[in-house]
Amino acid sequence: MPGAIRMRFLNFGHFLDHYVLLIFPTAVLAIERDWQMSYSQALSLSTPMFLTFALATLPAGWLGDRWPRVHMMSLFYVGCGGCCLAAALAPGPVALSAAMAGLGLFAAIYHPVGIAMVTEAATRRGQALAVNGVWGNMGLAVAAISTDFLAERFGWRMSFLAPGVMALFLGGLHILLAKSGSRAHANSEHPQPAEAPSDPDHRVMMRVLTFVAAAALFGGVIFNAVSLSLPKLLSERLASHTNSLSEIGSYAALIFAVAGLAQLPVGWFLDRYSVRPLLFVLFISQALLLYVTAWVTGYAILPVAMVLVLSMFAWIPVSSWLVGSYVPANWRSRVFSIEYTLSLGTTALVVPALSWMHGTGYGFQDQFTLLAVFAAIVLLAAVVLPRRRPSLNVPSAA
Q1: b or e along 76-103 (b: 16 or more beta carbons within 10 Å of the residue's beta carbon)?
Q2: Is 398 inside any structural domain?
Q3: b vs e for 20-45, b when ≥16 Cβ sit within 10 Å of the residue's Cβ?
Q4: In a domain? residue 390
Q5: What sign does the CA torsion over 326, 327, 330, 334 have?
Q6: Number of domains, the chain
Q7: DSSP for 308-368, written as a single string
Q8: In angstroms, rounded to a whole number, what is the distance separating the alpha carbons of residues 159 and 155?
Q9: In a structure prediction context, what are the per-residue pLDDT tens digits for the chain, which is 398 residues long?
Q10: 357 part of a folded domain
Q11: How many C-beta atoms lie closer than 10 Å to residue 249's C-beta?
């Protein structure tokens, strides 16, 4: 498969991955009305999706360093599409939870495999990761607005059916293009870096991985909690102004879309300057904004949430850039799998935690205050990062 076409599939795959994971948190507002369930009961139906997503990320990374990654990307597209169709046809809560479990299983493929492919193919790693990250953020934005639109006009089942058909079509196209590629392209799944000047500094690498682990764990909780709760947060804080699902979805989509563009200047910065000052600014801002979000009400929630999500999304390419810059190429899928097991996999804990806190009276004030503390922890972890920039390429490990 030609490199330009492959990169388009990688970028749209990131879009699709975040889209399918965010269908349920928005559709749940319609599901709870349709099936006469409370919000906490309906939200808990998505727990299997995030559980399998967390459990499957590590084996996906292991396979990504051993099996042709282009084949795994085909499996990602076809699997996500099939599980979306199963969710659309689910006759009841048990079947819907099973479909969500399958969706999490196949969605787990993208980050350890797709992001590793992006870091290997790019000459300007920061820019490539930023563009790829924007595609993922657009998946969040489009999921919020399109799911509300489809659920409100055609029922929540259509919000799974439409992306499922699209994913299956793209999966079939990806398989055809992969088969038509030359043997040279097939053998380029694990390309060697252009240079291998020396062995990587293992002490520096361990410091970087320490930060990546802390940012993945605590930053992952922040990212997932805010992403999952944003529609409900806007619904509560704007309750005296609107109760329209489509309007709330439009606000969430606008926030995700505008904030997602923050990765572009971050990618430019990463290709030129030291990462430490950038992280200090981002996480100081994030801690303050999380605390403000805990208390603000009315339409003031919209600009505050916008800047919060902007700071939250801006740091996403930083971890991938650190892994791509300090970790040997033939270990990256496994390192990415560990990172994303901690970051995105925390959703398996975030979903029941949010359900429990809502059910026991701990609202968004308590939740976002706790998230502000987590942002401060990531800020402290950034102190261990090296001050100087790394060399462009990292050799393969022996």
Answers
A1: bbbbbbbbbbbbbebeeeeebbbbbbbb
A2: no
A3: bbbbbbbbbbbbbeeeebebbbbbbb
A4: no
A5: negative
A6: 1
A7: HHHHHHHTHHHHHHHHHHHS-GGGHHHHHHHHHHHHGGGHHHHHHHHHHHHHTT--HHHHH
A8: 7
A9: 666 778 888 999 999 998 998 898 888 888 888 888 887 778 888 888 988 887 888 888 888 777 877 888 999 999 999 999 999 999 988 999 999 999 999 999 998 888 888 877 666 777 788 888 888 878 877 887 888 888 888 988 999 999 999 999 999 998 888 877 644 444 444 444 433 334 556 778 888 888 888 888 888 888 888 887 888 888 888 887 877 777 887 888 788 778 777 778 888 788 777 788 888 888 899 999 999 988 888 888 899 999 998 888 888 888 888 887 777 776 777 788 888 777 766 766 777 787 788 777 777 888 889 999 999 999 898 888 877 666 544 444 43
A10: yes
A11: 24
DSSP string covering 101-125: HHHHHHHTTHHHHHHHHHHHH-SSH
Structural domain of residue 271, as residue ranges? 3-189+198-384
Structure tokens belonging to residue 43: 């939200």
Say which DSSP state 2 is in. Answer: -
Distance, CA of 213 to CA of 189 (rounded, Å): 26
Q: Is residue 395 part of a domain?
A: no
180 by Cβ neighbours in 10 Å (0-12 / 13-18 / 19+) ranks as exposed
CB 156 within 8 A of CB 42: no
Q: What is the CATH number of the domain that holds 84?
A: 1.20.1250.20
* Cβ neighbours of residue 201 closer than 8 Å, sequence gap 6 or more: none
Tell me how crowded residue 72 is: count the other CB atoms within 10 A of its CB: 20
